[in-house]
Design goal:
Layout (H helix, E strand, L loop, with lengths): L6 E8 L11 H17 L1 E9 L12 H13 L3 E4 L2 H4 L3 H13 L3 E4 L11 H33 L11 H4 L1 H12 L9 H10 L12 H9 L4
Parallel strand pairs: 1-2, 1-3, 3-4
Pfam families: Resolvase (PF00239)
GO molecular function: DNA binding; DNA strand exchange activity
Protein name: DNA invertase Pin-like site-specific DNA recombinase
């Protein structure tokens, strides 16, 4: 329930890299703190938050699961304000940013960037130019970073070092994988454990995912298949 005198709003967060996903990661924590600080100072009450994990800022907003869920919620809960940390959290691609903003404006929804509150509120030619320039700079910086990282990967690859892809469970926690294989390999009462049963056994032994919950069946499957490669 919204506090008296405060305008209801929702927070929208986005991280483009799976490495930055998780409540303990800097990106999500930083975004939440910036949005919450702005909301308090500006008299908004955050009633919901939506998070697109490992979603590129170049993906159109309509193709993002978290953003889509947010729009479905807004259609029924009466909220008409979305707060993001920065314009680049909304979108890094300039065209995506402008088309997404236009879509929200047509629906009567306000978009506020906590670090520059007037960037989406003021629709004068000057404000639009500034917004587009900032979007172009962000897009340029992202492209330059990708280019630099690719160069670094290419140099490491030339030395024979593994440089691409997320580390496997076997690399991160060999004890976990060893137990998963053992549980799956040896049946109980003549019946092999299901992937979910293996997950439950792992959880009982203190092995859970980064979110504190038992591993998903697909994660267990990857652990099991690793032994047959």
């Amino acid at each position: 329930m919204a506090s008296k005198g405060k305008t209801k709003a929702v927070a929208y967060l986005r991280t483009s890299s799976a490495a930055n996903v998780g409540a303990d990661k800097d990106s999500e924590k930083r975004q939440r703190q910036a949005i919450e600080a702005y909301a308090r100072a500006a008299g908004y009450e955050l009633v919901f938050s939506y998070y697109d994990e490992a979603v590129s800022g170049a993906d159109h907003v309509a193709d993002r699961p978290g953003f889509t869920t947010m729009m479905e919620g807004i259609a029924t809960n009466g909220v008409r304000t979305i707060i993001v940390e920065t314009a680049s959290r909304f979108a890094r691609d300039l065209i995506v940013q402008e088309t997404g903003y236009a879509m929200l404006k047509e629906r009567g929804i306000n978009l506020i960037a906590a670090d520059s509150p007037d960037s989406f509120q003021d629709d004068t030619p000057t404000a639009k130019l500034i917004r587009q320039v900032l979007g172009a700079v962000s897009e340029f910086e992202k492209t330059m970073l990708v280019t630099k990282l690719k160069g670094a990967r290419d140099r490491k690859r030339a030395t024979g070092v593994k440089v691409e892809g997320r580390k496997s469970h076997a690399e991160l926690n060999p004890e976990l994988v060893a137990l998963a294989k053992k549980l799956y390999r040896y049946p109980v009462n003549g019946k092999r454990r299901s992937l979910r049963e293996v997950s439950a056994e792992l959880a009982a032994n203190g092995f859970v995912g980064s979110n504190g919950k038992p591993y998903q069946a697909m994660s267990i499957k990857r652990m099991i298949e690793a032994q047959y490669r």
